[in-house]
Specification:
Elements (H helix, E strand, L loop, with lengths): L3 E2 L7 E11 L2 E10 L4 E12 L5 E11 L3 H18 L2 H9 L3 H6 L2
Antiparallel strand pairs: 1-2, 2-3, 3-4, 4-5
Length: about 110
Amino acid sequence: MGYNTHHDHDDSSEQICSKAVRAGKRTYFIDVKATRGDDYYLTITESRKRVDKDGYATFSRNQIYLYKEDFAKFIDGLSEMVDFIKEHKPEYFAESEEVHPSIDDEFDSL
């Protein structure tokens, strides 16, 4: 898994680590940032490419901030919802497993 680590400064935060997840016309950016007090938080940005009638591409962005006191609750809620989907729509996950074989499958093929 590749991560970009760098220290870009803006007025209120320092970017610590960044991960881009490309998914068709969408890209999700998951960034770890630090406040001036060195508290880490996450920003999750969805960037969606849209092409207008003249063929010009524009991007719309939606962003959420996730603070340290909410990490555990967010992960629990997200895990619960993903597990629900896996149970009711396992086919959604079958394709991603075929595209990205597990480390165990790769090891077995050696």
